[in-house]
Structures are given as C-alpha cells and as structure tokens.
Amino acid sequence: MTQEHNDEFSSSDDLSSFAISEPENALPRVGLNDVPEMLRAACARAGWTQLMPVQSLALPYLLAGRDIMVQSRTGSGKTGCYLLPMLPHLDPELQAPQALVLVPTRELAVQVEHEAATLFEGTGLRTVAVYGGVGYKKQIEALRGGAQVLVGTPGRVLDHLLRHTLDLEALRVLVFDEADRMLSIGFYPDMKEVQRYLPRRRIHTCLFSATYPPHVLKLAGEFMTSPDMLSLSCKEVHVAEVQHLFCRAKPMEKDRVLVRLLETENPASAIIFCNTKANVHYVTDVLKGFGYNADELSADLSQNKREAVLDKIRQGRLQYLVATDVAARGIDIPQLSHVFLYEPPEDHECYIHRAGRTGRAGAAGTVISLVDVMQLMELERIAGHFRIGLRELAAPSEADVAAAVGQRLVTVLEARFRGMTGLEKMRAARYVPLARTLAGVPSGETDAAAADEDDTLLLAMLLDACHQQSLRETRFPDAGNEDGGQARKERSRSGRGRRRRESGRRESMAEPEANGGADAVPQDAAEGSEQTGKKRRRRRSRRSSGGNSAREAAAADASGQDA
Q1: Which of 152, 238, 323, 558 is within CB 3.0–4.6 Å of 130 for a Cys-Cys bond?
Q2: pLDDT value of residue 83
Q3: What pLDDT score was predicted for residue 182?
C-alpha cells in the first residue's frame, strides 16, 4: 500500500523540484492537518504520515467538487488523490454505485480496489472491481450487495449495463484513471457507450493521465464541464507540448524496435522519417509486411503515385507515412500524434522540422528517435543546441508488446461479442467445449461454468467465425467458374497434343538407328530415307484399316443385338 505512495516523491512541503501548472483561480495547497478528520483517519489506516505532492495540490479542487484534469506520472499517489475526496461525498446508507472509476487494465482495477478497501475500512463504503477475463457471478453478487464504489474496465462495465446488472442513476463521482492508456488500448467507443447510461445531470468528473495528447484533451471536453488543468512533473510539464524521447537500438535491430514501439504506443497517426530513399522503401515494406496501414513518399515515386498517397493523407485513410525530409515538406497530417525518427537527421535544423510535424496549434505530441551509441551523441548535441529536454524511453520487449496487443484485442473482441444477436451468441455457444479444450480448461468442469467465463466465450466466438467462413467456401474446385469445364477440356486437349508430339519425336529418333544410324554411308541415305517413308505409310495404313475393322465389328455386334 505505502510502496506506491513513497517510491518517487518526497513530502508535500518539498515542491520546489516540480514544474507545476495550476488553474488561474488556483486554490491553496493543503497538508495532512488541513483536510477533514475522516480523510486523516483514512491516511492513518493506509500508514501515510503526509500527503503526496499531487494530493496536496489536487485535494482542494476535488473536495470543492470542481471538474479537474490532473497530470502526474504513474506512482505519484494519484489513486489516493481521487479516493480520499469520496469519503465526504458518498453516502454509506445508499446501497447503490455512487462512484465509478474507469481504468485500462484488470491489474489496475484490482490495485485500486485493494487500496480503497484500506482507505474505506470502517466507513460503510464498499468497493467492487469488475473486469473481463473472469466470470460474472461474483461481480453480480457484489453489485447486488450494494457496493457504493465501482472500479472497472470500460468494456466490462458496459457489459453489466447491457445485462441490467448495473444501474448508474445514483452516480455522483466519475473518475478516468490513466486516460491516455485507456485510449491507446481502444476503449473510447466503450466509454462513449457508457456515457449513454449516465444520469442526465452534472456529475463531478476528474481525469488523471500521465500525458495529455490531443485525443485525451478531446475526451475531457466530452465528459467534463469547464475542467481545470493541474499539471505536476519532476522535470518538465508534459501537457499541451511535444515530448522528445529517444530509444536505444542497434542498427540491425531498429526495424524490430520500431514495430514494437508502434504496438505499445499505438499512435493515432504518425510519420516515420528516414535519411535515405533506400531506408524509406525498406521501412515501408517492413510495416506493410506486419499488416500496418502504411505508405511511403520519396523522390522515386511517380507523380500519380505521389498524388495517390497525398490523397489518402488528406482523407485520413493513411495511418503511417514513411518519408524523407524533402518528400514530407509541406505535408500537414491532421491529429498527428507521433513522429518517429528512424535515424537522427544530418542537419540540426531538420530535427526541428521533423518534430514540428506534431504538437501543432498548442496540442500535444510525441517525437521518438531511434539511436545507436554514436547517433545518441549527435542527438544530444542537437538537444543541447535547441535546449530540448530529452528523455529516454526503454525499448519495449516482446512481453510488453504481447501485453499491449492482448489488451487491445480483448477490447475489440468484447465489443464484437456485445454486438452479436441472440442467435449468433447461441450459435457461438456450441463451440464452448472446443474452446475449453483449446484453452486447456480441465474437462471435469461443466459447460455451464465455461459459458460464464468471458475469455472462453470470446474464443468460442472466434471458432464460430472461422466455421462460418468455411461454410462460405466452395467444396468443388471449379465451382463458381462458368468456363471451368471448358478450361478442363482445353487442358485435356493440350495434354493429348503434347503426348502426340513427344511420340512423334521418339519415332523420328528411333528410325535413324533402325537404318544404320548416324554412321550410315552417304550413298545409302536416299535409299534408307525411301524405305523409312514406306514403313511410315504402311504403319498409317495398318492403323487406319485396324480402326475401320474395329468400327465394322462394333457395328456388326450392334446389328446382331438388334436382331
């Protein structure tokens, strides 16, 4: 409990090391002795002897019920920051969800539930965590038991709303924790759908995020009423500005590191800059090979191809553009969230040009440079020249990529499952036993228990989709091809003709040997040729007469049968 609270930040009195941005009508900061008694008691239960900097700054706004966006990195004490103000705002006597905390992952949901259980101990407030990948039974029982605080992933919260096992009419507080991660996973459609079930009145809403790129700022405007902005960072403020990051990568590993960054960062759109046309072609081929919506711009492209790429950019149909500095000059991609430098530019001014493609009109953006040891030295010189604050971003591992992709894929599958009709869900349920077998679930458990497992149903849905696709595939090689039979006949005639030609070649090769071969004396060549011609004519005559005799015999037999 106290680990997160004490890892990275010192006491609330030591704020001089932070870059802080407060609202214009800022409220005074508070210490532990300045907050209500019930909050001090909660801190004592958690073992906190002082407030963390973000809590000291944000608690006055939250206690006053003002909508606020808080920027502070992970591990800064944000969880306690939004849980503590719930104590005076929630009614323990009302057995219904009064606070909803939306989080991106099941791990964070469990962590918040655990911390809430400590802070709310003895107050009558109960917390339930709901998330996918597990059964609904325990979650439904907790909701029916009257839990006042609900912590969950947007997809599972929406599932409960659609099942009518959750009612938000008594909701008073709405929290988005790690909103930037939720949007990178792809929860935005689910969050907008959850919004339809919120009461038609103002709800105190707060949003916590490590960064505020454009899509997070858009989310705030859609859920909050005139929110204040409070930013807290150890070195620099990462709100409404460009982040300059670098990632160490060996030259031969840059393509793999780039792909992993695209998976973990999940940019809305991005430009990948290369110094050479050859690297532009190579990186584009790599991205397309991985299935990304990517294209290139370089001096080698024809005008028609260049116009086609630009048209896709203007229409918002291209996610990743790979280009050189010259090719990308003058191109404006709306809502560009990321710029990747596959290699640092040779000219210092080019770095500013590349970085300037994102973070326009005061919006936020991210620039990530892939560098080896020597390139890092050059990048640091550029940063020093322009007084840019560089931060290192660790290269994602395969495990990091698997986790990020897995979260997004589960989100997509859950949304698809919710959109299925009753008949489609009934059809998919037939594959639950097979899904359990593939997932390695012990066979002793009943199918009914398996049907209650979210992940098993999602796997069954995929198996059903695969089966439905196989039903649409023809089982006849030439079906659907009107001239399939004719093509087969053509192949047969071609085969017979080829066999005749080969037979003729064999005969012509054998005949010289029968007449003395290549060593025959010249004066006998004409005679041998004449004899060869006679033999050929006799063979043709025999074949012809034999064929006629066979036809005559068949006709005679038929006549006898008729008689």
Answers
A1: 152
A2: 95
A3: 86
CA 391 to chain centre: 25
Q: Two tokens at 451?
A: 């049907």
Residue 489: the pLDDT is: 56
What mean pLDDT is predicted for residues 417-441?
87
- The maximal CA–CA distance of the chain, rounded, in angstroms, is 130
Q: In this structure, is the dihedral angle defined by the CA atoms of residues 160, 165, 166 and 167, taken in order, positive or negative?
A: positive
Sheet containing strand 294-297, strands side by side: 294-297, 320-323, 270-273, 338-341, 365-371, 242-248, 390-392
Instruction: Please list, in sequence order, all residues whose beta carbon lies within 8 angstroms of the beta carbon of residue 327, skipping any fewer than 6 positions away.
Output: 280, 297, 298, 299, 301
Span 221-279, pLDDT tens digits: 889 888 888 887 544 433 346 788 999 999 999 999 999 999 998 888 889 999 999 99
Segment 21-76, tens digit of pLDDT: 777 788 888 888 889 999 999 999 989 888 888 888 999 999 999 999 998 766 66
In angstroms, the CA 508 to CA 471 distance is 54
HSE at residue 359, side-chain half, CA atoms within 13 A, is: 19
Helix (H), strand (E) at residue 23 = none
Rounded CA separation 212/224 (Å): 15
Buried b (16+ CB within 10 A) or exposed e, 462-501: bbbeeeeeeeeeeeeeeeeeeeeeeeeeeeeeeeeeeeee
Q: Which of 327, 207, 186 is nearest to 268 (CA)?
A: 186
The Cβ-side half-sphere exposure at 64, using a 13 Å CA radius, reads 16
| C-alpha–C-alpha distance, residues 270 and 25, integer Å | 36
Q: Residue 135: beta bridge partners?
A: 453
Q: Give helix 154-163 / helix 398-418 axis angle, nearest 10°.
A: 20
Cβ neighbours of residue 204 closer than 8 Å, sequence gap 6 or more: 65, 67, 89, 172, 173, 174
Residue 511 pLDDT > 90: no
